Structures are given as structure tokens and as C-alpha cells.
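Predict the 3D structure for this chain.
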Amino acid sequence: MLTASGLSKTHGSRTLFDNVTIKVLPGHRTALVGGNGVGKTTLLEILVGIQEPDTGTVTRPREMRIGYLPQDLEAVAGGTVLAETMSGAAHINEVAEELSRLESRLADHEAPDAEAVLAAYGEAQSRFEHLGGYALEASAHKILAGLGFKPADADRPVRELSGGWRMRVALAKLLLSEPDVLILDEPTNHLDVDSVAWLEEHLAGWTGSLLFVSHDRDFIDGVANRVVEIIGGQATEYVGGFAEFVVAREEVVARAEAAAAQQARKAAHLEQFIERFRYKATKARQVQSRIKTLEKLESIPVPDRSQLKVRFAFPEPQRSSRIVAELADVSVGYDGDTVLSDVDLVIERGRNVALVGPNGAGKTTLIKLITGELEPMSGTVTHGANVDVATFAQHQAEVLDETHTVIEEFRARVGDQGSRNLRTILGSFGFSGDAADRRVGELSGGEQTRLALAITMANPVNLLILDEPTNHLDLPSCDLLEDALKVYPGTVILVTHDRHLIRGVADALVEVRDGMAVWNEGVDESILTPRRSTPGGSPPAVPTSPGGEARPTSRRPAKKQERRERARARETSGRATRDTRKALSRVEKSWEAAEARVAALHAELADPTTYDEPSRLAELNRDYERARTEAAELMAEWERLTARLENAGG
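Done. Predicted structure below.
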């Protein structure tokens, strides 16, 4: 295998990457992704041996064959298209040349070592057959045809070809050679749609090691089973295709942001303590201790979210009128029983509106009013012009044909998407690679829900209505849905109990409660999580006298009694302050230990090799979340005790 560790490279004053470790293993088809200028091509050239790293080492086994396709060809081959392609199989050509030499020696019947030559010829012939030498020319023609060459092009000189076609010859040469490690830098740049599809299919079955750079999401999703992202000078490996990579990357970013925020809070508390007691002699030791702790805090790097590109590309729907739907003084119900009354709502183009409220309050009824499935008992409902609606109902997944594969069912429901790759759309919803070829009946409930969502959202509509879309979905799938809704180009009406999804997507709430539907601009937490009133209703009032003033419960004590009570209060306060100090010390030690545990788990999660063991990764994530929760609770307790001590003058 090809391995590199501790790689660093700078160009001028700019560091491309630092301390990068990467392994190119057999069976791994790894996509190298990242923004322009982050050093992807430089990293490939270091792995191949064209460039040297500033620091770090690259290990290439002596017998390993590495094939590399750069973005631009420097030299132009002088032979024909077929000859240049076949020259790539040097290991087979060497055996062919050996066979030719042995045949010449066998032609000399008087040679004293004829038996030995015959044995060597038989061994070479067996090796040549095992390597596919007899089918080499046929394989070359097949690869050339896949890359768009006509049969007549085989005898054309390479020099006559344009730069793009020369690049295809170089790629065909590499593919025919079947190296142990194939490294490609933007292989689809010069290919047409048919050739890209062929190359995608060809590389999806590649049995050796494959490392490639591409900005073609379709291609990455169809080929890669690993993604290495270079961002912020670091390289992080993710298991799975492009869709899985985005989900996993978001989790890593969220953890890094949370850890950095927690670290910032801790630093702020340390600085607050230092500034407060810097000039107090009795606190000098504690101040110095905290200064050292502050100096030891290593900044936690957080990826820049502006570099994390959205992977959903929905078709642009037709433009609807500004008012998508308007309800004026509407009452609605069933069989004469009113469910909602006096409803006045205006839903404008481009809004993301969440309907919230208890079950049975009338959210689904309101949706039926908006879509025109239900007529109002009174009032008017006006639908906008050019409004196309797609609706996802709670039981949408139940109507899927379980005998179809995912891709077959998707194609049957959404039709021909023209220039859009159906597998890419499915990959955006978590069905990348082989997952798109599974039977619908083999999918879990959450996967079927996800497929139904993909079908609902694939066509270019300008009003999307989702009724409890997160039922049966796991957290990564909910994240997928959130990402999709954030970039959806139309109007969204969402009914869900997932508050996280509402916060991430909605820009307005309609509270459906007690027979009313009330519009609320923005996302009001008091509506998402309404406070319950106490069992007794309002809190008990202070007893008052008939005149309305607070009635005293007892007369003031005599001066002697007052002095006794003040002394008792001072004694109690002093004892409470001592207890608080002790508790604060214990909590501070526990908090520091918890923070150390969080940092250790974060470092382990940042190690790319961790993602090679899914079971271990799941356990690490659970441990990390528990450690974060414990640290947050201890920090809150530390803050509470600190405030109590300050209020007590301690």
C-alpha cells in the first residue's frame, strides 16, 4: 500500500497543508476534495514523487506500480492511438518481448539448452495468458471505445489529436495498464457525458487502489467509497460516498464548534479570575495556576463553514405569484363541527413556514385548506397563480412498490430528469452507490421515508408541503432533510414535531391551537416549547390587608433580639461561604477532569483511522456526547457556585 505521514507543504508564506497522513489501500476508491488552492494537486504529486514535501515521509513499496494522470500533459506521444494505449501495459509487453526472444531461440534446433528454453517459454506463456496478454488489444479497443474513440481512430497519430483527446489517450493507457495504485487529477475534465458515465462504471469496479480529485459530484458519488477532505490545512477521511461524507463532515464540524465554544467559555472564566485577583497577594498562587492553565490551552481548529459547499441542486421551478395562498376570516370543519375559525393567513412566495401545535388541533386540516382539498365553511381561500404543489404525507412511504429497486422506483415516480443524474439525486438523500440498487422491500422504515422524500422533492415545484417528514428517520437522515430544505428554491410548509428541524429551516410559525391559527414572524421558543401553568393556576399572592397593602406577619423584635438574629445570620453566612468554597473547589477539579476527557475523545475522533471502525466510531460518539454533557453540567455548577460566593462577599 502507498502511505504518507506527517506531510507538510508551503508555497511562499502560505501553508497548503500540515501534518497530513493518508493511506491508499487496496479496494479503497478515495475522492480527494476541497476548495481551489488547498493543495490537492500538490498532495498527489508528492505521493507520486514529482514533488518533495517540506516535512514528512512517503512510503512506496519497490514493486508497486503507480499510474498517474495529471491535469495537463507535458509531452505528446508520437505513436498511434492504439499503440500508445497498449504501451501502457508495460508489464505485459515485457513478457511478450520475452516470449519473442524465447521463440527465436527455439527456432535454433541445434541449441544445446533447448529443453531449458522450452520450459522457460512455457512458463512465460502461462504468465502472459494469466496477465491477459492475448486479450490485450481487444481490451485496448474496448477502453478506447468507452472513452469516445471510433474504431477508425485507432490508427490515427496522437499528434493529430486535440489536447482533450490526447488526455483521453493518456487515460486509456493508464486504465489498460491496471496499476496497483491509480491516481487521477480531474479525470472528467475533458470527457463528454457518455464517456463520464462509462468511466464512472469502469472505476466503480476497480479492484486496486484508486485516489482521484474531482469536482463532479455525480462522479464522486458513483465511484468513491472514501472521501478525504482538505480544509484548513488538515486532511480528514470519511467512509462512504459524497452524500455520506457531507453528513459525517457536518457532525465533525458541529463537534469542533461545540468544543471550541466550551473552550472559549473556560478561557473567559480563567481570564475573569486572573483579572479579578491579579493584585491580591492571598490569591497569587491561584492566579499563577490559572495563568499556566490558560497558556496550556491549545486552540481547537474549527472548519470555516463558508468552505462547506451545499450538495443539493434542485431544479428551478416556475415563478409563482407573490401570494401563494391567502385565507381571510375562514372557518373550517367536518360534518358541521368547526375545527378552526376566524383564520387570517397570507403565505408569500419563498417563505418557509412551520405549523406547530398539539395533535388534533387542525394542522392537517389547515394544509387541506391551502391545497384546495377542503372547502371552508365560511370565509374565502385564495390560491396564487402558477402554484405547483408537491405534498409529502405521513404515510407516503407505504405506497412504494416493494418489488422495485430504489433507482427503478425513483425513475418510475419522477420520470426522466433530462440532464440531471437520477443516481446523484438519490445520493443526495443517502442512496449512493449500491444502496440505489437495493429492493424497496429490503429498506428500513426510515430508508423508505427517505426515498419517498426524494421522490416528492425531485420535481421542480414551487410549493412543497411536508406533513411529519421526520417520522422513522434517524439523525443523519434528518440532517439530510434539513440541508435539502435550506436550499429548496420554492415555498415550504412544514408540519413536524422536530424542533431542531424547525429552528434550522423555518422563518415563520403558524401556531394551531384552541381552534385558532395564528401567524408568528420568526421562530419563537415560547411557541415551540410553551410553558405549562402550575396546577393551582396563578402563583399564590402575598396576603393583603383590606386596604390593599401587604399585611405584616409579625411585629419587629426588640433591639436585643435583633442583635441576636444578626449574629446568628453572620454565623450562618460564614458557614455557608466556607461550604460554598469547598464545593467550588471540588467542582472545579471535576470540571477540569471532564474537559480533559472531552479533549482526549475529540483527538481520537479527529484521527482518520478511527473512521475505519464503524462500531468503534459509534461508541466514541456516545462517549463524546456523555463527556460533553458532563463537562457542561459541571461548568454550569461552577458558575452557579461562583455567583453565590460573589453575592455572599466571598
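The chain is about 45% helix and 20% strand.
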